[in-house]
Amino acid sequence: MPVPENVEATVRALVDAAGLPVSDEEFQSFVAMYPALREAADGLYIEEVRYEEPALIFTPVAPVKE
Amino acid sequence: MTMPETIQEAAAALRAGEVTSAALTETALERIGALNSQVGAFIAVNEEGAVAQAAQADADFAAGIDRGPLQGIPFALKDILATKDQPTTANSLVLDRGWGAGYDAVVSERVRAVGAVLMGKLVLSEFALGPPDEEKPFPIPKNPWALDRTPGGSSSGTGIAVSTGMILGGLGTDTGGSVRFPAAYCGHTGLKVSYGRVPKWGCVPLGYSLDSIGPMARSAYDCAAILNVIAGPDSRDPAGSLEPAEDYLAGIEGGVAGLKVGVPTEYFFDHEKLDPEEKAATEAVIATLADLGAEVVEVNLPHSDLAKEANTLTMVSEAFAYHRMDMSGGRWNDYGSRTRLIIARGAFYTAADYVQAQRFRSWYVKQAAKLMASVDVLVTPTIVEPAALSADTDMSKRLLQPSYTGPFNLLGYPGLAIPAGFSSDLGLPLSAQIVGAPFSEALLLRIGHAYQQQTDWHLRYPAGVMEVAAV
Q1: Where are the domains of chain B?
Q2: Mind giving me the DSSP string for B95-141?
Q3: In a domain, A42, yes or no
Q4: Least CB-packed of A53, B128, B357, B359 within 10 Å?
Q5: Residues of B labelled catalytic
Q6: pTM over 0.90
Q7: How many domains does chain A have?
């Protein structure tokens, strides 16, 4: 997933989807940060991991009684 | 009276009748009174409770009841751990004030049961992540070695309180380095335990699949004494390991002769941002271990730069899931101004990114397991540089910097941070990290103890701030 050309529009959509009441200054800080965050996440899609199962644990039996 | 330097020393003095828990507690309270307003270690001090617990400890000693090395010892808990006699805040206005009311976290219950004197609740980064915010009604933690510097987080109060002898031991939590950073920046020892080693029930979560609770104290020996109390399964923690706990003091005098120490040069020693003195101090630790009979070999843990990113992605995503309802539900401004920006990063990752981070995690675990089949431990720097100026401490920036701790949270491996010297210019603490395979805490503590028999970095006090406070 390459860094989108219109970072502001992407960040606005994600902030709105999450319902975050950010200030203009906070919004601009997200816009400034987003390309690096996207690049870091994209960097995890490496060939070595191509056939790995995720390190997630699920059990159909409730482990703890409420 | 003079506060003993370590739990080990205090425990011996208590049993020899040279000191009482009441006297230790009084001294600790005096130190807290003299220093806390300057260094911001405690959110709340439980003076009345501590005095009563100390009296009980002394009464137990007199009656021949001995619950082990923590009995009668001034101790404290990061304010993210539930305590039945004090509220829990997570250093935030947001945490429901009813959370944790009237009951103890598993670890609180365990240290209380062995007679530790609980002095109060310690400052932390908001929800174990957010930097201090002067606009919020919580103490601002300061590094006792240089008050304009960060003490590290997120277990900042525990680091400060141990460093200044307000307490002789305490508990922190570690999701990306939060036990090891303050131990490193404040100049004492801290153990990030294997994932699942210590039950987390009763601890406010940060990153569910990464969080751990660990001991912080002056020495590896003291950390072992604390781990003896808090390790082991509890049915209330579904993420807890059933791996039996050990006696972490039993083999602590075993030395390092014949052990194979791996030095992962790539990323951990050759990064351009690594401070030369921090690097040299870590290399000096390795040299000392070699002098003591360890074999040193160069190794490689591939893609550790990506492991740091996967840890961050996992932590922030899990944290955002926990916080989203509050953030979008009217509490946005109740969070610290920087806390909310860091946690909200979780809104920018996709679900596939999170799963991919867990796929990377599976692969990285295999690489680490292969590596650990050829060595007993790894030794790395704990930190990239000594404590930065608090004014320059930008968490967002840090999340983009290398981390020598986060990869081991991703692995779930234990890591022991030990003092390794001081910077030449400002006299700030330096630290090395000893990392081992899952549930190898006893080995790490044994190595740390062997090193600390040769050096006294871990016993140094921040004399300046303590002399000013006349303690």
Answers
A1: 7-468
A2: S-TTTTTT---HHHHHHHHTT-EEEEEE--SBTTTBPP-TTSSS---
A3: yes
A4: A53
A5: 78, 154, 178
A6: yes
A7: 1
